[in-house]
Amino acid sequence: MNKMPVEETLSRIAQVFHSGDALAIIWNIIRWVAFFFKLASLACAIPLIGLVVFDFFLWIWRINRPPPRDTPQPSRNPSRSPSGRFKQPLHHPANGSGSSSATTSTTDNSTSQRRTIFSTETDNS
Questions:
Q1: What is the pLDDT confidence band of residue 61, given thresholds at 50, 70 and 90?
Q2: Which residues are CB-contacts of 15 (< 8 A; sequence separation ≥ 6)?
């Protein structure tokens, strides 16, 4: 191995500082550090941008995809009972005595607000 003498090393360092190359070396290091941070920021941005683009194309693909043939299409007609009449929805009261609250309109002419009146009956079964 060849070792450089100390005097020669010091003379090269002095030559770099006197010729103005030191500023170029420092700016080169700063540029590489900035490049590293830009690259690190793209490491998060590129996957997110890719996900947005993928979701857009998936959305377009689902819009243009024909419906599967083996599944039945939902009927637009409401379901009918065998007698041909429409089925009525089932309503079950909250408790056996009926509804516990009612919405009524006040008969006073000074106000037109709707108010909910709660029953004072309690069912202690």
A1: very high
A2: none
